[in-house]
Structures are given as C-alpha cells and as structure tokens.
Design goal:
Helix content: 25-40%
Bound molecules: adenosine-5'-diphosphate, magnesium ion
Mean pLDDT: 95
Oligomer: single chain
Largest sheet: 6 strands, mixed
Number of strands: 10
Number of helices: 9
Distance between the termini: 36 Å
C-alpha cells in the first residue's frame, strides 16, 4: 500500500543555509509521527514544505502516492487535503468562532452556509466548545483559541493533520486540553505529524519519533527506543538537556 505521505531526498536552503538536508520520511495511513529537536533544527520548515507554504529546492513530496511538489500542481487543492495548526493562534480576530470555522468550507470547498454551520456545530460539540460559537477570539482562553484552530483545520475534513508546536504559547494549565484533542484525533485514526517540545506527550502518543538535527532526521524509531536508548550522541545530548530542565 502506498504511504499517506512521503518525503524523498527533500532539500531546502534559505540563502546559503541548508535547513533541510536530504530528508526521507514515509508516513503510513493513521501513523502519528512526532518531530522533536532543538529550535532551528528544521521542524517548522518541514511542516511548511509539506503544506506547500515553503517551496523545496530538491527532492519530492508525495501525498497518497501523487507528487505534490511537481510543477503545475495547484497548492490550494493540496492544502484542502490536510489541516495545519501553528503555534500562534491564527484565528481571524474580527470573526466569530462559527465564522472562523465555516470560512474555509464555504470559500474553498463551496459548501452552502447551512451545511458548513451544521458541521461546525457538530465539531464544536465534540470538542466541548458549543457555548463559544458566537464569541470573538479575544474572549477565548489560549487553550480554547487553539481548540478552535484545530476545529477550523478539521472543518475541511482532512485525513492528514500537521501540528507545529501548538502548545508552546499556552499557559501550562491549558496545555493538557489541547493535547487531549490531539489524542482524540489519534483515536479516530487521523494521520498526524506533530512538531512538539512536549516529550511526555510524544512518548505517549507517537507511533514513531523523529529527532531532527541541523536539517536531518538523525534518528527515528518507536518512542520507547528513542527516549530510553537513543543511539546517536546528539539525540542523547538533546534528551539530557530536556531531562536537566525537568521536562521529561
Ligand atoms: P524549528 O521549527 O525546528 O525551530 P525552523 O524550520 O523554523 O526550525 O528553522 C530552521 C532554520 O531555518 C533556522 O535556522 C531558521 O532561522 C531558518 N529559517 C526558517 N525560515 C526561514 C526564512 N523564511 N528565511 C530564512 N531562514 C529561515
Ligand atoms: Mg518551529
């Protein structure tokens, strides 16, 4: 069976700095992959490359066996098939929660307003946010904003979700509510790529953990293996720093 997502020899430089060097990664259907590594190791660039927000220099990216980095591919059509959630809350501040969620389905997928709203209501109910339907983002907590951002990404019914440090901007007591949403998606079989500094969460939720170092996937494997007996010295150093900071 073809992979859900595949990166083959992906290279990317900004000016003369190599940010992704020969990245190879195969993501199976329903796989949950956590990307860990120091700040600047290339996690965000990798996720943006997959979402076609950053053009790659070499290599290819395949979604369901089709090359999405080929010339002539319409990036908007590709983006409809995946949801992405970033660290900073990217909700539109002038729009109510419901309108934030239905905008994409109405504008991009051409769904009639009532259908888009029905679906949005279902999602809000699932994620315990029904009472926030008519609020503006600035009246929500950080955790609620991030849950709305996840719902918005789910509104297009993607079967691949990309998460980039989605809890990094949250107060510690709000982190769990967002991580639980991601756990719920795993239970529903969502394929996910999650860049995270939450090592406990990665150990818990990931089928596979990839350690990025200077633009390379230096080491990957089941969380047990990576966290308990990393092979590479750089992975050991990274994890030791996390342990020293009391975060694992
Ligand atoms: P991470 O998410 O792991 O912290 P990033 O992918 O954000 O890493 O960044 C990898 C490297 O690429 C960093 O050195 C960063 O400064 C650089 N970089 C990222 N985006 C750009 C950009 N748009 N222009 C120039 N350099 C960039
Ligand atoms: Mg990043």
């Amino acid at each position: 069976m073809t992979s859900k997502l595949e990166l083959q020899n992906v290279r990317k430089s900004f000016d003369d700095k190599v940010v992704l060097r020969d990245v190879d990664l195969a993501v199976g259907h329903h796989d949950v992959i956590c990307l860990i590594g120091s700040s600047g190791s290339g996690k965000s660039t990798m996720l943006k490359a997959i979402n076609l927000l950053v053009p790659i220099d070499e290599g290819q990216i395949l979604l369901d066996g089709t090359e999405i980095t080929a010339p002539g591919v319409n990036p908007n059509q590709v983006r409809e098939k995946m949801g992405i959630v970033f660290q900073a809350f990217n909700l539109f501040p002038h729009m109510k929660v419901i309108d934030n969620i239905t905008l994409g389905p109405r504008k991009v997928h051409g769904l009639p307003q009532d259908q888009a709203e029905d679906h949005a209501r279902q999602l809000l109910e699932q994620f315990g946010l029904t009472d926030k339907i008519n609020e503006y983002p600035d009246r929500l907590s950080g955790g609620e904003k991030q849950r709305v951002a996840v719902i918005r990404a789910l509104a297009g019914e993607p079967d691949l979700m990309l998460f980039d440090e989605v809890t990094s901007a949250l107060d510690p007591e709000l982190v769990a509510e967002v991580l639980n949403v991601i756990r719920g998606l795993k239970d529903r079989g969502m394929t996910m790529l999650i860049a995270t500094h939450e090592m406990g969460f990665a150990r818990d939720v990931a089928d596979r953990v990839c350690f990025l170092d200077q633009g390379m996937i230096l080491e990957q494997g089941p969380p047990k293996e990576i966290f308990s007996s990393p092979r590479e010295a750089r992975t050991q150093q990274f994890l030791q720093r996390i342990i020293d900071a009391g975060r694992l």
